[in-house]
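Figure 3 (text version): structure tokens given as input.
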């Protein structure tokens, strides 16, 4: 395994539990990337091709244990905007495509959620489980170790292949370690590891900043600006407001940038934009700032499974803005592919499509 994010750690746990001898290499520490620095919302992906993976992930989270606590109930996601006429087509579309979300227009958003500014439009999605950002990844790492997987932190590795077959990995000191299969789950850095020539680049980083704050009257719901639901399929480079609150701490987001941002430079604009939706954000001091990169693929969907041309080489990446929500379900599919079980990976999500 290459990469100790949510995907790599869940894969390591599943494979080790299925009797595979697993060693996971993480170049930094477990959950050092987006899997430890995200907004912390387990969220419906609003993409028909991914709802099965999301439902499987929800179930995995309920059974995860090892320090992870799945909230009993969703908190409700309020999609907010300034113009009701602009929000309504989105609501109607989501209501038709995903009845389970019960997309419901709110006549008086400020009454449903007093933290919101009074003149906003909003609809509610019955979705959203706030969790601590790194909790799921840490729990899967603990579970992987308990099942016998070895986790090596602080070592960056690259896959090695010979004659169209993966032979193992190479460490920075040039040592090679043999392996029957290598799974690259290195988030946005996966493309470069699979193909150092740069010819194969289906996954790129899309950097986001989160501002963590303690509000005196935090919202009860998770809040998202209209438009965020199109991220997986359309991508965007403009900032979009989001606010996820758990245990009195709110994560305010976020940006969608191709280059790593300086969080302190971006934060004031995020707070200013956010205060249009939640007025008490103005003047609130940040508790902490963090930046991390979403692994975004060229068509906005994950890349899962074997790579043609190199036997024994697998990838699991490209989960964009919803990797924590989808991670365990995807990891299970790739674990089954590694184990040689019937591949249940939909062709539209197969890594081989690129
Ligand atoms: C601002 C922001 C907010 C987000 N909020 C949410 C949210 O609320 N809900 C949600 O579901 N998703 C959210 N996401 C998306 C989610 O965080 C990601 O999709 C997910 O964490 C990706 O997981 P991963 O395991 O693929 O990659 P990563 O978490 O990036 O893990 C990859 C790991 O590989 C390691 N690595 C890289 N190269 C090597 C190498 N050569 N050798 C060894 N290790 C290597 C890295 O150090 C890293 O730890 C958010 C993302 C951002 C940026």
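Below: residues designed for each position.
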């Amino acid at each position: 395994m290459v990469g100790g994010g949510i995907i790599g750690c869940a894969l390591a746990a599943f494979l080790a539990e299925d009797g595979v001898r697993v060693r996971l290499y993480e170049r930094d520490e477990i959950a050092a990337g987006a899997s430890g620095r995200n907004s912390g919302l387990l969220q419906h992906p609003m993409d028909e091709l991914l709802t099965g993976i999301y439902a499987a992930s929800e179930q995995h989270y309920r059974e995860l244990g090892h320090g992870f606590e799945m909230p009993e109930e969703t908190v409700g996601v309020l999609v907010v905007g300034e113009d009701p006429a602009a929000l309504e087509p989105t609501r109607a579309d989501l209501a038709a495509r995903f009845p389970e979300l019960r997309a419901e227009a709110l006549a008086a958003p400020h009454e449903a959620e007093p933290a919101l500014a009074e003149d906003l439009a909003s609809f509610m999605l019955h979705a959203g489980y706030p969790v601590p950002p790194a909790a799921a990844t840490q729990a899967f790492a603990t579970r992987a170790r308990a099942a016998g997987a070895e986790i090596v932190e602080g070592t960056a590795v690259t896959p090695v292949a010979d004659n169209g077959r993966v032979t193992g990995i190479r460490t920075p000191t040039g040592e090679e370690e043999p392996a029957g299969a290598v799974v690259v789950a290195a988030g946005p850095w996966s493309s470069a590891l699979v193909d150092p020539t740069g010819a194969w680049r289906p996954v790129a980083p899309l950097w986001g900043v989160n501002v963590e704050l303690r509000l005196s009257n935090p919202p009860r719901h998770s809040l998202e600006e209209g438009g965020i639901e199109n991220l997986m399929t359309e991508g965007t480079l403009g900032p979009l407001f989001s606010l996820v609150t758990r245990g009195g701490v709110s994560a305010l987001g976020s940006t969608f940038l191709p280059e790593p941002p300086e969080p302190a430079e971006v934060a004031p604009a995020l707070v200013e934009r956010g205060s249009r939706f939640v007025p008490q954000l103005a003047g609130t001091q940040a508790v902490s700032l963090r930046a991390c990169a979403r692994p975004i693929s060229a068509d906005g969907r994950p890349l899962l499974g074997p790579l043609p041309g190199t036997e024994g080489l697998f990838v699991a990446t490209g989960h964009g803005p919803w990797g924590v929500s989808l991670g365990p379900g995807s990891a299970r599919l790739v674990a089954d592919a590694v184990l040689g079980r019937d591949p249940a990976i939909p062709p539209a999500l197969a890594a081989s499509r690129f």
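The chain is about 30% helix and 25% strand.
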